[in-house]
Amino acid sequence: MKIGILGGTFDPIHIGHLLLGEFAYENFSLDEIWFLLNGNPPHKETLETKQALLHRIEMVKRSIQDVPYFRLNLHEADQSRHSYTYQTMQAFNRKYPNDRFYFILGADSLFSIEQWMNFRDIFPTCTILAAMRDDKDTEDMQKQIDFLQRKYGADIRLLQAPLVEISSTTIRRRAAEGRSIRYLVPDVVAEYIRGLGLYRE
Fold first, then answer.
1. Are 28 and 4 in contact (CB under 8 A)?
2. pLDDT at 174
3. What's the pLDDT at 134?
């Protein structure tokens, strides 16, 4: 199978994440998209409770429950340790040797990937799909792709998608203020957040 990997804290998952998964699935004829939920990302300080993690997991489940090719993957959900992309992708390659992996990331990550832990070890494990808005000039992105391919032998493809300028931070703030988050997240997530009063102080 051809499997797309879309990682994140998903706090909460929003329509931008889901659109990115959908366009990757469609544009590269993938068989599945795995939403790789990170419990303890190395680039963020988190004092999250176990209950908060379970809420994030539940929101992803509800968001993708009606899409047969979307899956939740909890490989990086262990809160007791940091998870690193190179380790995760190596593990997936060992566990699923007959599958091909496509790691989905945004433009900012493509330009900062050389700062990632053991980033060179990522490239042999997957094809990278570098997402950018489909109405943007691709010249700078293509230069970075060419650079990484030439220097490290990376296999990187440009994923043009209607990236939605939504941040989970904005959604959490609006929810904390009791304001509407309709159209920012799937209805089932909005209902879940509202029903449990998530993100309220």
1. yes
2. 96
3. 67
pTM over 0.70: yes
Sheet holding 156-161, edge to edge: 70-73, 32-37, 2-8, 100-106, 127-133, 156-161
* pLDDT tens track for 45-71: 555 688 999 999 999 999 999 999 999
C-alpha distances (whole Å) from 89 to each of 2, 5, 77, 98, 121 are 14, 9, 15, 14, 9
Give the CATH number of the domain where residue 145 resides: 3.40.50.620
Whether 109 is in a domain gets the answer yes
Strands 100-106 and 127-133 turn out to be parallel
| Number of domains observed in the structure of the chain | 1
Task: Give SS3 for 188.
Answer: helix
Q: Which helix (H) or strand (E) holds 197?
A: none
- DSSP structure class, residue 93: H
Question: What pLDDT was estimated at residue 43?
Answer: 58
- Among 35, 30, 27, 32, smallest CA distance to 6 is for 35
Report which DSSP code applies to 132.
Answer: E
Percent of the chain with pLDDT over 70: 94
Q: Looking at the domain assignment, is residue 19 inside a domain?
A: yes
Q: Which regions of the chain are under pLDDT 70? A: 41-48, 134-136
